[in-house]
Design goal:
2 copies of one chain form a homodimer. The first copy, chain A, has 13 helices and 18 strands. Chain A is an alpha+beta fold. The first copy, chain A, folds into 2 domains: 273 residues, Aminopeptidase (3-Layer(aba) Sandwich), CATH 3.40.630; 123 residues, 2-Layer Sandwich (Alpha-Beta Plaits). In chain A, strands 1, 2, 3, 6, 7, 8, 15, 16 and 17 form a 9-stranded mixed β-sheet that branches. In chain A, a hairpin with a 6-residue loop joins strand 1 and strand 2. The longest helix of chain A is centred in the N-terminal third of the chain and has 18 residues. Chain A starts with a helix and ends with a helix. At the A-B interface, strand 10, helix 5, helix 6, helix 9 and strand 11 of A face strand 10, helix 5, helix 6, helix 9 and strand 11 of B.
């Protein structure tokens, strides 16, 4: 593959130059350009029936190669949309001008998920170029709404499961536990993302003239947030914890053996004063096996330069719940909506609206596809593969399980310090090439 | 004065067309234009020594007429700067295109304080035009930083008290208790306005990958706000309440006699579900004689369209305390800074920085200048003048008291529904003309 590296890198850079930010409607044209870019890459890799699947939302990109009768069929998934790059001023190089520094490629989407989607495409392209055929059947399904809830792909998979028949899905959208440590992710958290609307007075009021009798929607949001989650990080939403399945003793034991230095993690990855979270749970339990409630932003009032003495008429907070098996997003949505109503202070009206959600998922490490992937990674990296979970959410995994009845093999090649969703996102380039090699081996040795 | 009405209104409209928003640095040129506008109006009124006083910040506008030896000298104060107009989409006519509807003039600053400053200028201009002289001596001192803390005027008054020698100040920047009810304000709340900075991780983090162990600065702000003020509106800042001087029994009794319908007030002025605030205090006590803590906005995290799953690295809340006699702004600043430190949750660093502050003030209703103003207003409006307080802050009143040793007569001609600091600010035009007449009579009968 050494001879293809330059070409592979150039292709990825071109992919990363497209600011396909799915959450900002002004980037609609860029999102479409990214879909077309993926379509062209699949066509160039000589897949069959390459096409954009339209139908509400951003197009899905499909391509297949099904000429290995009697062999398993894999559904290869990735996403071409990215998170917004703000705060822009914290980037050392512009987010959509991919730049190599110290063996890493810096750009929004470098790791999440354009770089990893590129691994799947280039592995298949490489095998087809070399052999003219594949050792297994594959279907690509690359979406453009992963960062905004993936409604289109969920609807498509649910509506046309027969078009996507496969034995397992393969997803490159997670990270390795440590550099050089091949990793398969066996669990993901689910999510409920929504907005908390609070309305007080009819319009913004002067805090001198009306302060003391007028309700303050931002203060009300603060009160609701504090009612939903206490200072120790315990969530107080009635019924919310009932269906949580604790990790097995064996899994907890494996997590304890993972190479992990909490002080170093705090210093290198977080950089805060200390780690926080629910008392009585280890770091990995808090990250992988416990739900969270996080507030992502509050809009309302005056946030410009200087001082304005306003009591805002309304305010909106963006809040997410991360869920673990076997919590249900639908049930959690109802529970937080009810808890918000209960926690609403006097004088204001508070309402919860879910924007998107996805189920948590777990896969059995003994699954044969997982085992084959683990062996392929082991051969390329030269070390035993470890099994971890991820705190993030890939809702499509739940959809694949429910609608197609297939497990998802999560082969991740990102690194813990890739800064996904943050300024200076990067992808470690050796993992780009090793990832392609590992996927090639996985497909070849199934 | 009837013959001058059109000219007076045209002048005020021209004044209001200048978007002199002192808190937004991009409006610096507009602020200066407003200062020059006032300077030209004072010159046209035939005041002497009219000039801009420069020296850091926005210029003060000065003008004097001191040719009535043996007569009292009044310091006439107003401000030419205004609050930002946002949210813009809620204005029925553009904030800087003054528009007359139903006897009221709609524009940002119409009531606070360009319209009322215009009353002082036109009253003096009218007397000088009619008589060629004034019955008293006057000094105008009009500032351009009232909405942002008034540092320049405070420094100037403190540095050059001899240039401003006077027997009393007259300020038109308050409101009448009710339409047709002449009102003098005998007390103002003070203010401490500041920012609450909270820092968590080194940079924004993905809420899936790090949620459960990373501190969330917005949640921390929520916790601090809830620690500083409880659900009932009680402020919990150690020592904060110690020096509060309760209103006299006589004052409380007078407040009880004011024409006031709480249900109508809630419906017409606030428009929220109910009134809130400290239990055990009447509406007027909560507005005029009790301190408040209000949050005006939070910056940090993601507030755009759609969803972004970020744990922000930092967040800033704008917060004010309103103070009542005899609370000290310096002491309250120290107390809230300390309370913020105490309330700071684990994992984050919280810091309070005061942006500006001003002392509360009280004046004796039996003061002879107050009595003369009350009589003048009574003659023009045909009803006895009532004495109220205001929940707002005019910090210069404290500076005049401390540095010049003079009381301030607060003759207000705004109305309770003028929407100052809010969309659709207005000034009731009959009060513009009656205000000018009342000030003319006050100056003539001293």
């Amino acid at each position: 593959m050494a001879d293809r590296r330059e070409q592979i890198l150039d292709g990825l850079k071109a992919f990363l130059r497209i600011p396909s930010i799915s959450t900002l409607s002004e980037h609609g044209a860029d999102v479409r350009r990214a879909a077309e870019f993926v379509r062209d890459a699949l066509a160039e890799a000589r897949l069959r029936h390459v096409d954009l699947i339209e139908g509400g939302g951003n197009p899905l990109v499909y391509g297949e190669w099904l000429e290995a009768p009697g062999r398993p069929t894999l559904l290869l998934y990735g996403h071409y949309d990215v998170q917004p790059p703000d705060p822009l001023e914290e980037w050392h190089s512009p987010p959509f001008e991919p730049t190599v520094r110290n063996d890493s490629l810096y750009a929004r989407g470098a790791s999440d998920d354009k770089g990893q989607t590129w691994i799947l495409i280039q592995a298949v392209a490489g095998l087809l170029a070399r052999d003219g055929r594949l050792p297994v059947n594959v279907r690509f399904l690359i979406e453009g709404e992963e960062e905004v809830g993936g409604k289109h792909i969920a609807a498509y998979v649910s509506t046309y499961p027969e078009r996507l028949r496969a034995d397992a899905a393969v997803i490159c959208d997670t990270e390795m536990f440590a550099p050089e440590l091949p990793t398969i992710c066996t669990g993901l958290r689910g999510i409920v993302y929504g907005e908390l609307f609070v309305t007080g007075a009819r319009q913004d009021l002067h805090s001198g003239v009306y302060g003391g009798v007028a309700p303050n929607p931002i203060q009300a949001i603060a009160e609701i947030l504090c009612a939903l989650k206490d200072r120790d990080g315990r969530i107080h939403i009635p019924g919310f914890h009932e269906k949580i399945r604790p990790p097995s003793a064996k899994e907890l034991e494996a997590w304890r053996r993972l190479p992990f230095d909490e002080a170093e993690y705090l210093e290198k990855e977080i950089g805060s004063r200390e780690l926080v979270g629910e008392p009585g749970y280890s770091v990995f339990e808090r990250l992988w096996a416990r739900p969270t409630l996080e507030v992502h932003g509050i809009r309302g009032g005056f946030t410009g330069e200087g001082a304005k003495t306003v009591i805002p008429a309304r305010a909106v907070a963006k809040v997410s719940l991360r869920l673990v098996a076997d919590q249900s997003p639908e049930e959690a949505s109802r529970q937080i909506a009810e808890a918000v109503r209960e926690a609403c202070p006097r004088g204001v009206v508070a309402e919860w609206r879910t924007i998107h959600s996805g189920a948590p998922s777990l896969i059995d490490p003994d699954n044969p596809f997982v085992q084959a992937a683990a062996r392929a990674m082991e051969e390329v990296f030269g070390r035993p593969t470890v099994y971890i979970r991820s705190g993030g959410s890939i809702p499509i995994v739940g959809v694949f399980a429910e609608r197609l009845g297939i497990p998802s093999v999560l082969m991740g090649f990102g690194l813990p310090d890739d800064q996904i969703h943050a300024p200076n996102e990067k992808f470690y380039l050796p993992n780009l090439y090793r990832g392609i090699e590992a996927v090639e081996r996985f497909l070849s040795t199934l």
